[in-house]
Design brief:
By secondary structure, the chain is mainly α. It contains eight helices and two strands. It has a domain of about 140 residues.
Length: about 280
Amino acid sequence: MIQELIRIGPISISPFGIMLAAAFFAALVQLRWGLKHLQAGDAEDAGAILVAAVLGGILGAKIYYAALYGDWRLIFDRAGLVWYGGFILGALAVLWVARRRRLDAWSLADAAAPALALGYAVGRIGCFLVGDDFGMPTELPWGVKFPAGVPAPTTAGLMRHEYGAVVPAEIPDTELIAVHPTQLYETLAAGLIWWVGVWLLRRGARRGTTTVVVLSLLAVERFLVEFVRAKDDRFLAGLTLAQVLSLVALLIMGLLWKRLSKSYGEQQLHKEVSR
């Protein structure tokens, strides 16, 4: 795995940094298209929303990461771009910008949801290239060894002692072993979810549908991939914190869907009465 592509004096540019920039660009292109398609905003609105999402997302991810490990110095660490922390504060920042620019919240959310999925799909490629967020040991043919993984190479010892994985006793602690490339699993899943979101927009799905469907699918994807990710925060019936948050997200999406369905039914009834 490549940790550094270019170094200019004290500045180091990694594959993750390159893919993160590509993720933001892809999300911006998708967001501009979504806003235009829904007639909900223009290119300037898209730029302001992306800036808010990036700043709020990075800050939220860092705060979540530091709180998770109980060390606020980690806010300034290069690592720690945690998905749910970034999503929560990023979403709040976007809603604040939307309110200031007088954009319709649901139309904006419908335009932004596929952009979020696309950006996530591209960003996870960066995680793969630097060997971050890898999975548990596997004998599947597409298993990958990360000799320069983050936080450490995927050795048998790391898997045994840090993540509690069952590794054959004859394999020494220092030997590299293949693990699930969970980063690529997420890239493929999020890419498919992005396609579903765009398809819903093109089909003219009713207001709010694209948001609820895309965010629900992202929550399901994260819940499932956590079963094969190398994690040390399993605390509730073997579930990770991300899985618990995924379940909470699904509950919230269910409540939003119920509210949207009720609102849509009332609108249809009003139309029938008005005829």
